[in-house]
Amino acid sequence: MSLITEAHFWVGVAFVVFLLVLVAAGVHRFAWKALGDAGEKVRAQLDEANRLREEAQALLARIQSDHEQSEKLSAEILANAEEQAKRSQAEAQVRLAEQIERRGQLAERRIAVAEAQAAAEVKAAAGELAAQLAEQVLAARIKVAKTDPLIDLAIGQLAGKLQ
């Protein structure tokens, strides 16, 4: 069979003619331009993505630095707080010891004053009792003896003076 009668041959010829028409019309320039434009868009997007990635990395580095600084600062604050708490505790213990000492001294002074008052009251009561007993003894002796009005008057005055 001949080549001219083959359907494949004519499909191939039509395809080649079609391609020549496309080349003559300049479609290949439009295709290259479209591909170039698409490539430029992709390149611009990649550049933008790289720029954003670099910004993100810089931001991440800054955040990590800030985080490290804040951790150091919080550690310092915690150490200072612990030190202050220890100082406050020591001061409180010293103040408590001083207060206990002062209260002990105050209690000792109050006890001494109370003892002195009690001793004075006992002495006063003993003196009063002794005066009453002396009055009773003298009164009993005088009754046995002859009563003198001057002596009775002196004894009455003596009782008033002893109290």
Give the number of helices. 3
> Percentage of helical residues?
over 70%
Please write the string of helix (H) and strand (E) elements: HHH
- Rg computed from alpha carbons, rounded to a whole number of angstroms: 63 Å
Distance between the termini: 171 Å
> Mean pLDDT, as a whole number?
87
Q: Strand-residue fraction?
A: under 5%
Shape: rod-shaped
Multimerization status: single chain
Features:
0% strand; mainly alpha; rod-shaped; 3 helices; single chain; 163 residues
Q: Mind sketching the topology for me?
A:
Layout: H1 7-25, H2 27-144, H3 149-162
Summarize it.
This protein is mainly α and 163 residues long. The protein has helices spanning 7-25, 27-144, 149-162. 93% of the residues lie in helices and 0% in strands.
